[in-house]
Amino acid sequence: QLLFTAATIFAFHSFPGLTQWMTFKGRVVPMLSLLVSSITCMFMASSEQARRSSPLKWQLLSLFTVGQSIFVGFITSFYSFKTVLNAMMSTAVATLTVTMYTLLNPNPKYDLSQWGSGLVSAGVIFLVYGMINLLSQFGILPAGFLPYNEALYSLLGASLFSLYLAYHTRLVISGKHTKYQLNEKDYVFGAMALYSDIIDIFIYLLRLLDTD
Questions:
Q1: What average pLDDT score do residues 40-49 get?
Q2: CB atoms < 10 A from the CB of 178, how many?
Q3: Do 211 and 17 contact (CB within 8 A), yes or no?
Q4: C-alpha 36, offset from chain centre
Q5: pLDDT of residue 24
Q6: What is the pLDDT of residue 49?
Q7: Domain boundaries of the chain, sorted by first residue
Q8: Could you give the angle at the alpha carbon of 164 between the alpha carbons of 46 and 87, nearest 5°?
Q9: Measuring CA to CA, how many Å separate 43 from each of 63, 122, 157, 188, 195?
Q10: pTM to 2 decimals?
Q11: Are 174 and 182 in contact, with CB atoms under 8 Å apart?
Q12: Distance of CA 182 to the CA centre of its chain
């Protein structure tokens, strides 16, 4: 999944005409890609049959990955290639650090699988705050309706999805100190969750590192 996404990102940077076409003529493509990947993810999350039936689960995973890759590739094409590479390397370091901590942490007091409700609440607050800022930028809400700093918001986003990555990693690998775990039949959905977390970390680090 990550290799395919990386290849798509490089394709967008190698062929600038692709971005120009999507920006002026094919605007529906990135939006449709995001919509398809979102619907696919929600469908798998809500349907046990979709998560476990083969080859349906593989088809949905492929569709989700392609949709995400096109949308992410399009977004990154508006950043310098150097910034994208820096974000990729930073994401790799963050992912490795979080994964190693999750795998090597033996203390049951820090069982990350119990963080679900707290992370959902934090995610909702983060999303609502971002939507309020977006509405302010479009003039629907008064300018400066809430204080906003792009660097701080991006840092919070990267941190939040790093916690999501730790949480989902613990659900996938489980272990004797884990209270909750993902059913072994849901490994494809687990891969989708981990991939989504890593992509979100990458996007927010990209925004954080952007100096243009």
A1: 88
A2: 16
A3: no
A4: 15
A5: 85
A6: 86
A7: 1-78, 81-212
A8: 120
A9: 12, 23, 25, 13, 16
A10: 0.88
A11: yes
A12: 19
